[in-house]
């Protein structure tokens, strides 16, 4: 491809766009700590006595220690081989609830 928009070596494989295929132990520890902090917030809101639909939905989610490691670090992907992909490949994965609920939530 010639012209102003031809791919450069950086866009082909430079460090700018590379994402590791699996989470490092540090990133896994940070993900676990994030899940534990979310659990603490949900518990604090529950203890405060406030009732709302969002709290009811949050209480149905599994806690960090109840989750299988596969559910902590991967999420469903119809396009990936094995139908799972790392949570770090999901856009804005630190802000989303990626927990799987065995209770049918």
Shape: elongated
Topology as a string of helices (H) and strands (E): HHHHEE
**Strands ordered across the widest β-sheet:** 1-2
Strand content: 5-15%
Distance between the termini: 48 Å
Largest sheet: 2 strands, antiparallel
Q: What structural class results from the helix and strand content?
A: mainly alpha
Helix content: 40-55%
Strand element count: 2
Low-confidence stretches: none
Total helix count? 4
- Overall radius of gyration: 19 Å
Overall mean confidence score, pLDDT: 84
Could you explain how this protein is built, in words?
It is a single chain. The chain is mainly alpha-helical and 105 residues long. It has a domain of 67 residues. It is built from four helices and two strands, in the order ααααββ. The chain has a two-stranded antiparallel ribbon with strand order 1-2. Strand 1 and strand 2 form a beta hairpin. The longest helix is centred in the middle third of the chain and has 24 residues. The radius of gyration is 19 Å and the shape is elongated. The termini are far apart. The mean pLDDT is 84.
């Amino acid at each position: 491809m010639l012209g102003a928009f031809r791919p450069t070596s950086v866009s082909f494989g430079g460090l700018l766009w590379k994402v590791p295929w699996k989470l490092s132990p540090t990133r896994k520890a940070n993900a676990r700590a994030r899940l534990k902090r979310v659990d603490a917030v949900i518990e604090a809101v529950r203890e405060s006595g406030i009732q709302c639909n969002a709290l009811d939905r949050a209480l149905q989610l599994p806690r960090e220690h109840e989750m299988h490691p596969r559910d902590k670090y991967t999420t469903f992907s119809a396009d990936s081989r094995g139908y799972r992909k790392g949570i770090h490949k999901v856009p804005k994965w630190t802000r989303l609830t990626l927990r799987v609920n065995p209770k049918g939530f």
